[in-house]
Each structure stands twice: as structure tokens, then as C-alpha cells.
Design brief:
The protein has about 700 residues and is an alpha+beta fold. Among the domains are: about 220 residues, Methylamine Dehydrogenase, Chain H, CATH 2.130.10.10; about 45 residues, no CATH class. Helix content is about 35%, strand content about 20%. The protein is built from 18 helices and 33 strands. It has a four-stranded antiparallel β-sheet with strand order 1-20-19-18. Strands 2-3-4-5 form a four-stranded antiparallel β-sheet, with no helix packed on it. Strands 6-7-8-9 form a four-stranded antiparallel β-sheet, with no helix packed on it. α8 packs antiparallel against α10 and α15 runs antiparallel to α17. The radius of gyration is 29 Å and the shape is globular. The two termini are about 40 Å apart.
Length: about 700
């Protein structure tokens, strides 16, 4: 019998783990103040605080913020700055009172000055660096009495008699400083001519671009001592960055509300269009190329939510998503062919004029594989709707990913389960009927819907055979699991025995050349592996698919993508459980190589992931999902990809991992985390909260959330 202490510890750990969704963390939220919100036009030269309320000097005019409004005030002592002593022979750039004197930043270095004594030039030094500073343009004393400086060499602080120094290697993103300010608990902000830098417990957060600031030229910063709110003055207005206390569950409620209010079009979920750049008040529902996938992902999020929480709203939303996805299949020209999009015939965009035959031919001039099909939006049989054709593997991967999850976690009644069987059977039978191809209303295969052996052995499809083999086998596994029909097992056996689809699936993701490495293939791959592995019962195939999972994971394991991390971790943990259950100890699994099974188990017994990255990503996803253009190619803490044929837009932090998601030019979880220059609509689109909801509820359901705040 185990001691009582053991059971108490186990119980307390379980309760602690269950509290993760409600654990509070700091969520930074931006409010921009410009002439559009009452701030005077012009450059913000200075900001100070009076009673923790900002007073700013804007183009020579003083204005204060109170009760949500900016009002003019007479210039007075609130905006005056104490004169900094001059240092003879050099230009003074910054200064701060320090130890009954001053610390003074100059063009040629840092000086300590006390009245009646000669200035002492300071040379910061630690175990890694010894600096003769230049252009010390930022100085500040923090709340822990540490003196901070910003110079061309980097950032540092003096704590007692010891220096701590930072360059790009230690995470400093940029070094052209303009100002500095201190907040509570040792928090420090630096202004630069390309954004602001927040330093919290020696960790750097880069706040730049329209996501964070009205303009990147930062001239002044003030930080409230009560709650750490930063007021950042730029050439075109003020950014108010507030540190809100939030839980993951509260964040999920925010994003569910966002999707339901601005991203629900007849049950389909996609990004919305902003008629006025950056203004969500002008949001209007839009369509995407992948409404089926994105609706499936939202439905899967709500299915995991329902399984984890039992919330009846989650079931209702999952049910609605299922019906929308099934409608995409039921509306088309042939049983089992899913449309990309459904819109009413009075949709404001003239879609078939946009996708005219002439336009198809023009597209083929730069993209020979572009399919010349017309109409791209056929009319439904009842004449009420248009549906978009040329459906891709993205759509199918989304459908099958969702249907298996919905069937297992949400469908309760026989009627609900039969509806899933019907649609899964229809799509799979369409593929089998057409030789593993998705065949359009013109009788020809869609551009990205070919899973046939002939395609894989062609010059056009050889590079797709690993991914599409895994995808097709996954579809068959989901179909067999949902319908119970063993004919799908028979089809999978043909593909394995005759065409080696399972061998192809050992390499399910291309890594080179760069044009073959597209991030949405990561989505297709991992979503399909989820169904392939979860519904596979043959131990020999599970060993092979586990190897395939690891191959796919190697290229994306450092992107800090909570969705991909959650899928990999869930499947890797399942393999660990199966190994613990002695599932792979049958000596006859691979008679031609009796060491294969034991070597795979040994190599992949534990998944190579860190659940803390899932938590970090979920916490850092901004509440504002407008797509902003962000250019990180100037950063000091980035290592550029030096691969042959690669451009200079790909890189990662010096620690080898992708930049935090709130510093990238995308918020979607189906993009390349290593892209340094990226945009998601340049402020003309708002993206759906699915990209938080799905990884959050999936990780919650699979027990992958850690206690503790990510840094």
C-alpha cells in the first residue's frame, strides 16, 4: 500500500494541472491614440505621468489623457525635465540622477558625474564583454535600483558593482536607441527608431509595426508604476500597451465571441475583410479558398472543448460546423465531392467574372499548373447558391480530421453518428471510384486532389507522394473507423502491397528545395497523421507511421506552433503508452529485420517536444488578430537561413527557435514561423480565433498544458 503522503501529492498535482485553463498570466493589449481618437496631430516629443495619467507634448502642444479623452493643457512643470550636466568635449545624449549625482550618456561613452568632481568615464565589463561605449542614448534607473543603458554595443545594467550585458546573442533585437523608461517590478522599456523593446526579467519583447505602434519612430516612453501600462510616443501618435491579467479560458471565450460575431457566414468560418484598414468596426464576412478546412478546424476546436469541459455551447457549435462541412459535400455535382466555398447567388463579388476563362489563361502564364475550369463557381441545383470547385487536399485533410474527432467526441445519437458515416463514406467512395482522385464537374482531377499511384510516379507528382500517400491512407483509416466497413481496410492494403504507400509515408514532408517547403503542407500532414495513427491497429504499421511522424516533426519542431506541437505531442504520447503496453514486442513483426521494432521503440519512445512551448504560444497569441505587415529582417537576435537557394526572408532566433508569435507577421497557425517578412492582409483582414481555440482545446483535452507562466 502506498503511503497517504503519496496519494495526497498525486491528488494535489492533479488538481493543480486541472487549474491551468483558469491560471492567470499577463496579456499585453494595445490601444492606439492618434488624431483619429482626439490626440493632436504631430510628433510626440515627450510623455510624463501625473497621478499615473499621461501628459504628452505633441508638436509643441501639451495634452493630457483623462476619462478616455485627450484634452489640451497649459505647458507647465509636468512636462519640464531637469537639466543634465554637460560633459566637456563630448555631446550629451541622455542622463539620469544616480547616487547623489548623474549617470550621463554621451557620444563617446557613459560617465558618472558628481558635483565638484571630474566626470568618470565608465567601461562596462563582465565575463563575456568589455565595452568602450558609443552613443549612449538611453539611460534609466529601474525599480530595483539598477542602472540601465542603451548604446550601439547593446544593453546593460549595473546591479551593485556587477554588470549584466546583452547583445543580439542574448536576445536583444535592436540597438538604435532613443529613450528609456522604468516600470514596476524591474520592468524597463527602451525606445528605438524601429519600435520599442520591453525587458522583463532579462527577457526581451520587441514591440514594433502597426500591430503595436502607430509609427516605429519612438521618441518618448512613460510607464505607470501601479500596473505597468506603457505610454509610447511616436512620430504619429501614442501607443498604450496595457498588461491585463487573463486566463486561457477567458481568452478562449474572447475568441469564441470574436468568431461568432465577425467570422460566421452561414455556419462557415473564415477570415473577415475590413473595409477600412485596421478598423474592425468595418468588418464584413468574407470567403477563403479553404472555408472547408477552416470550418473543420473550428468544429474540431469545439469538439475538443466539449470533450474537455462538457459545455453544451461547444456541442452546438461543433454540430453547426459539422452540418456546414456536410453541406459542402451535399451541394456539388457528384456524390462525395466537397466544395471549397458556398455563397448565396446575390453575393456582392462577381466571382465567375473574377475567375473568367481569360483569367485562367493569364494565370497559366506564370503558373502552368493552374487549372482552366469554368465556371469556378457553379450554381447549385436549386439555383440559390454558388459553390467553388477545384477543391484541394487541404479541404479533404480538414474534413477527415474533423469528422473522426466529431464522431468520437460529439456525436451521441445514432442519427448523429449515421450522418458522419454517410458523409465520410461518400467522400471516400468518390476517391476510390475515381482511382484515388478528386474529380471536378469537368470530369478531370482537381489541381491538388490527386492521390493516385500514376500521379506519384509522374514528373509532376513524385515530390507529393510521401505526403499524399500518408493522407490517402489516413482517409481510409478514418473511413473504416467511422463506418465500420472493412472495404476501406482492403483498399488500404492494396495501396500498401501494390504501391508501397506505407513506405512513401515514412517521408511525409518535403524539406528541399525551398519552393516545395510550404507551411500549409505541415497542416495537411499533421492533421492527416492524427487520423492515420489514432485509428491504426497494426503494430508494424504503427512503428512505421511513428517514424514518419518524427520525420515530419524535424522540420517544424522549432517553430513554436501550438497546433502542430499539440498534434505531435498527442501522437507521441500515444506511442509511449502503446510501447508501455508491450504492443511492439511481437518478435515476428519484421522477420526480415528482427531489430527494427526494438530500434524504433528505443529511438521514439519519448516524444521530442516541450509542452511549455504550447503554453507560451497560447499566451502570446494577440487578442487582436488583424493581419499586420511585420519585417524582422533587421533584427540582431536573428540567424538567417544559409541554405542554398534560400532567400534572406527566413531565419530564427539565436536560440534556434522561431520568433514569438506576437512578433511575427502572421497569427495563423498554418504559416511559416521562420518567415521574417510577412503579412496577412496588411490590415485589411481580421483572422478567426480558431488559431487559438483549436490548439488550446486540443492541448486541454490531451492533458498537454503545463502549470507556470511562459516567458
Amino acid at each position: 500500500m502506498k503511503p497517504l503522503f503519496y496519494w495526497c501529492l498525486l491528488l494535489s498535482s492533479h488538481l493543480l494541472a486541472q487549474s491551468v485553463p483558469n491560471q492567470k498570466f499577463v496579456q499585453e493589449v494595445v490601444t492606439l491614440h492618434t488624431s483619429a481618437t482626439g490626440l493632436p496631430d504631430g510628433k510626440v516629443n515627450h510623455i510624463t505621468l501625473m497621478n499615473n495619467q499621461p501628459i504628452a507634448s505633441v508638436a509643441g502642444k501639451s495634452t493630457k489623457f483623462n476619462d478616455g479623452k485627450w484634452t489640451a493643457v497649459a505647458a507647465g512643470k509636468a512636462l519640464s525635465q531637469p537639466p543634465i550636466p554637460n560633459i566637456q568635449g563630448t555631446k550629451v545624449l541622455a542622463g539620469v540622477p544616480y547616487k547623489n549625482g548623474w549617470a550621463i550618456g554621451c557620444e563617446d561613452g557613459l560617465y558618472f558625474y558628481q558635483k565638484g568632481k571630474s566626470p568618470e568615464r565608465i567601461f562596462p565589463k563582465n565575463e563575456h564583454y568589455s565595452w568602450s561605449l558609443r552613443h549612449v542614448t538611453a539611460l534609466v534607473m529601474d525599480s530595483k535600483s539598477r542602472l540601465w543603458f542603451g548604446s550601439e554595443e547593446g544593453v546593460g545594467y549595473l546591479d551593485g558593482d556587477k554588470w549584466k550585458l546583452f547583445t543580439g546573442k542574448e536576445g536583444l533585437p535592436y540597438n538604435q536607441f532613443t529613450c528609456a523608461a522604468a516600470g514596476p517590478d524591474g520592468l524597463v522599456w527602451f525606445g528605438t527608431n524601429k519600435g520599442a523593446i520591453e525587458v522583463d526579467q532579462d527577457q526581451f519583447k520587441y514591440r514594433f509595426s502597426r500591430r503595436w505602434l502607430p509609427d516605429d519612430q519612438v521618441n518618448a516612453i512613460a510607464v505607470q508604476t501601479d500596473n505597468g501600462t506603457a505610454w509610447i510616443g511616436t512620430d504619429k501618435g501614442i501607443s498604450q500597451i496595457t498588461r491585463q491579467s487573463l486566463s486561457l479560458e477567458e481568452k478562449a471565450q474572447h475568441f469564441t465571441k470574436q468568431v461568432e460575431e465577425r467570422h460566421n457566414r452561414m455556419g462557415f468560418v473564415a477570415q473577415s475583410h475590413l473595409k477600412e484598414q485596421f478598423n474592425i468596426a468595418t468588418s464584413e464576412v468574407a470567403i477563403s479558398d479553404n472555408d472547408g478546412m477552416y470550418t473543420s478546424m473550428y468544429g474540431a476546436a469545439q469538439a475538443f472543448r466539449y470533450a474537455a469541459t462538457g459545455d453544451p455551447e461547444a456541442k452546438a457549435l461543433a454540430d453547426r460546423s459539422f452540418k456546414a462541412c456536410k453541406w459542402l459535400v451535399d451541394i456539388t455535382h457528384e456524390k462525395g465531392f466537397p466544395a471549397r466555398v458556398i455563397i448565396p447567388v446575390d453575393w456582392p463579388e462577381k466571382v465567375n467574372e473574377i475567375y473568367s476563362r481569360e483569367d485562367n489563361l493569364r494565370n497559366q502564364q506564370h503558373d502552368p499548373m493552374w487549372k482552366d475550369i469554368y465556371p469556378r463557381f457553379p450554381k447549385s441545383k436549386d439555383g440559390k447558391y454558388y459553390w467553388k470547385c477545384d477543391t484541394s487536399s487541404d479541404e479533404l485533410a480538414g474534413h477527415f480530421f474533423f469528422y473522426g474527432i466529431y464522431y468520437d467526441l460529439v456525436a451521441k445519437t445514432e442519427e448523429e453518428k449515421q450522418a458522419v458515416r454517410d458523409v465520410v463514406g461518400d467522400i471516400t467512395d468518390h476517391l476510390i471510384r475515381h482511382g484515388y482522385k478528386l474529380v471536378d464537374h469537368d470530369g478531370k482531377v482537381t489541381r491538388w486532389g490527386d492521390f493516385s499511384p500514376e500521379y506519384f510516379n509522374s514528373v509532376y507528382g513524385y515530390d507529393q507522394r510521401g505526403l499524399n500517400s500518408a493522407v490517402m491512407l489516413s482517409f481510409l483509416n478514418v473511413a473504416r473507423h467511422v463506418t465500420g466497413d472493412k472495404k476501406y481496410d482492403a483498399e488500404a492494403k492494396i495501396l500498401r502491397d501494390k504501391y508501397n504507400y506505407h513506405i512513401n509515408a515514412l517521408h511525409p514532408k518535403e524539406f528541399f528545395p525551398p519552393e516545395n517547403v510550404v507551411p500549409w503542407d505541415n497542416n495537411i500532414c499533421l492533421m492527416s497523421l492524427y487520423g492515420l495513427i489514432n485509428y491504426e491497429t497494426d503494430p508494424s504499421l504503427l512503428l512505421m507511421y511513428r517514424q514518419g511522424l518524427e520525420v515530419a516533426w524535424q522540420h517544424i519542431s522549432k517553430q513554436k506552433n501550438a497546433f502542430w506541437d499539440a498534434i505531435y505531442a498527442a501522437l507521441a504520447n500515444r506511442f509511449t503508452q502503446q510501447a508501455d503496453q508491450k504492443m511492439f514486442e511481437n518478435k515476428g513483426l519484421f522477420p526480415e529485420n528482427r531489430l527494427y521494432a526494438s530500434k524504433v521503440v528505443k529511438a521514439h519512445y519519448k516524444g521530442n517536444y516541450r509542452t511549455g512551448f504550447i503554453l507560451e504560444n497560447l499566451q502570446k497569441i494577440p487578442l487582436d488578430l488583424i493581419g499586420y505587415t511585420m519585417d524582422n529582417t533587421h533584427r540582431l537576435d536573428v540567424v538567417f537561413d544559409a541554405s542554398p537557394l534560400q532567400d534572406k526572408n527566413i531565419g530564427w532566433r539565436t536560440d534556434g527557435y522561431a520568433l514569438p508569435i506576437d512578433e511575427r507577421g502572421h497569427v495563423r497557425q498554418d504559416r511559416d514561423g521562420f518567415a521574417l517578412l510577412a503579412s496577412e492582409g496588411d490590415g485589411h483582414d481580421e483572422h478567426e480565433g480558431t488559431f487559438f481555440l483549436l490548439p488550446y482545446y486540443m492541448a486541454y483535452y490531451h492533458g498537454l498544458l503545463e502549470v507556470g507562466e511562459a516567458k
